[in-house]
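Regression test attached.
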Amino acid sequence: MKALFTRPRSLTSNVMIYCPGCGHGLVHRLVAEVIDELGLRERTIGVAPVGCAVLAYNYWNFDVTEAAHGRPPAVATGIKRVLPDRLVFTYQGDGDLAAIGTAEIIHAAARGEKISVIFVNNAVYGMTRGQMAPTTPLGLKTTTTPSGRDPDLHGYPIRVCELLTSLEGVCYLERVAVDSVPGILKARQAIRKTFTYQLENRGFSLVELLCSCPTNWKMTPSQAMKWIGQEMVKWFPPGVYKDVDSTNQG
Amino acid sequence: MKSLLLNGCEAAAEAAIAAGCRFYAGYPITPQNRFPEYMSFRLPQSGGVFLQAESELAAINMVFGAAAAGARALTSSSSPGISLKQEGISYLAGCELPAVIINMNRAGPGLGDVTPSQSDYFQSTRGGGHGDYRTIVLAPWSVQEIYDFTYLAFDLADRYRNPVLILSDGMVAQLLEPVHPRNGMKKLPQKKWALTGCRGRKPNSIKSLFLTPGVLETHNWKLARKYERMEKREVRWESYLCEKMELLIVSFGICARIAREAMEQARREGLRVGLFRPITLWPFPYRQLKSCLEKVSKVLVVELNLGQMLDDVKIASGGHSRIFFYGRPGGGVPTPEEILKEIKKK
């Protein structure tokens, strides 16, 4: 019998504890599929963030370390500089990457650190119960913006891809909405590209994935998927923001 | 091997390289700026990686990454910078990663002053970061000792899979003294737990998060047993002229070196004075100090702070009634004559 669909070797058989409709499960699998495809499982070291995805080492079947909140780019820098021929990537949420770890991500990018960043943007702090994140769109109600995010009180969302484009150490930046089958396939391609560029020593690269958090958005999984495509993309337009291989940017 | 004329920063850097350190990340702060400057050319010459980090936080977390990947890794700073590194030190301890952290103590609190101090004794010996953990703390009193202790610290860090601190100060950092270097390490320990890619083995993970009820407690008891082993095996101290004396000076680091000079002057004047110097501030030589304290009627604790090791001396004494303190908490360093004056007052 021919197997049409199997679990990637780079995923363990552990049952993921993520909420129904959460984007993490999808993205974990995409990362695992691409690592299998490139034959890199035994050469990969992942850095897991603080947040829901901290348990990623239970799901990925390769070497993974935890990092303090916001520090994955610094930890990945230490690993990659010591083991330059390994595939080293960080997996970070919006609070981790764009609030408490803003300095680390900007400087890893500015140094052109040869690491890949999988940036999961779901507009809220997921694990701590849905507080305002640096990527929360204006007007969105969260547990710390009960009347909605108000620019006078809470400032404006940070657009990470746009922010990093000016840095010369960066070789590739793309934002993808993971809200549909085409979106998932596009995310897979982007993850493949960030890993490939790293192996080619081109510099720092980051893929921003707009992902659902139905529990904290207080939506059903299907409503959450729709909200990504209808609302989130207005604040965070998908696209290639930088690609050293292409003149077709933005 | 020929001896070298080095300052404390350069000596520690040379010792680290001889001990097989191949990764250093740091951030500029006085009085240890010579450290990253020296490493920036010296470490790459030895096949290592030097990185000037964007912050102290990033530096300690880069060290975390390098240690996780199996390298001998080092960072250095001075007091305000060491405060920022506490987050990373706690994670290193929780994740059981070996690393060496050197503090060229300057006076605080806050921005304080750039002059020598021992005011980070509590921070160094009582954890500093969050959580229930311990780190070995070595206190050198000369440039040769900061060399020797840095060399030793890498072995201790690997042996226990734990961060090791060197609590030095702005004076040792800048002193120029001859140093007898050692031959480089021939063989570094294998690290089967390191993250190097899972070729031919099951994947490794490095973590300090344990959410299943009871698992963190089991982990922390395991750490506790490790700390007990350190307390049993790693206590280091020195005592001078501790027989037939009336007054015992207890002092550590550069302050103890000045106190030794005061002790010698006192002896020349016929005063029966001895000196006890803890070398490991943690584990503290409680038992060894206690047996010295039992023989004296007066104790003078001398520190460059408001009296921090004083607490440990009191614990060791178990209620000695005549413990006096002389401290300089603002970055000033006493002369031997000033300490001698204090001895005579008691």
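Expected vs. actual: identical. The mean pLDDT of chain B is 96.
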